[in-house]
Amino acid sequence: MGDKPFPNKELISDICQEIIYHYDDLGRDVVFDFVGGEPTLAADLNDIGKKFHNHPVNVVLKTNGSASLEWWKKSRRYLSDVVISVHREFCDLNHIKDVIHLLQDETFGYPVNVKVLIPATHNEDSWKWAKKTRYELQSLFDVGEIQLLYSNFARGSDMYYPYSKSQWDDYKSWHKEFENVEVEKAMLFKRKENNFLGYKCYAGIDQLTIDSDGDIWRGWCREGGVIGNINQMPIAWPKDTIICNKEICKNGFDLNARKEEIISSSSNS
Length: 269
Prior knowledge:
The structure is a single chain. This protein folds into two domains: about 10-150, Aldolase class I (TIM Barrel); about 195-260, no CATH class. Helix content is about 30%, strand content about 15%. The chain contains eight helices and eleven strands. A five-stranded parallel sheet has the order 1-2-3-4-5.
């Protein structure tokens, strides 16, 4: 939600209930993905979790992990997955380790699936810190992966920072799919692989996004236009697919939506 405050818990609960009803009619399971800004700063997140705890839904939390251990102890029972982004500039790594331990430890309840991302630029100090942190977390908890970053991503760039050969060698040693692929070919392959122009896309059926203004979209690509706003009910939730008009599907969330190539057929008379 950026720097804007989260909606009140009643509004969030009402919208979540609408989403559950709509996608249940479509025969779909529901996963609520809370992102930020920092969603753990929403004081009512626990109350929201309690309300939907008995519904057949999963709750995913994407966070910097900074919330207190007391907050995590109260909240972990409502979470299926937690994605922690570890930023060198402001993270307390010892606290992050305590949080991961609490989430994985079965003595606190059913273990939560934990994924840890360590963003790193091509700056050598940034890379060394990320590499060291990855090693520590992998050794202790078997989690932690370095997240490569795009240059000027906010303006739509799909080009990585100019990582050095040794940095790419590190990355390829952790990700075997890059093992025998040159850097330039890897980036080109990524762009071609993510080209679904003219495909049938299930964004809006497989997923929805709600931005910091409360506007509802099929995905962060905003294909198909705005669906509605959480402050203006009722909402005409999507039931049909759309045709992709983007040359590159570059957001990881959007890539999760199914795509189907449209094959035209012709017959000779």
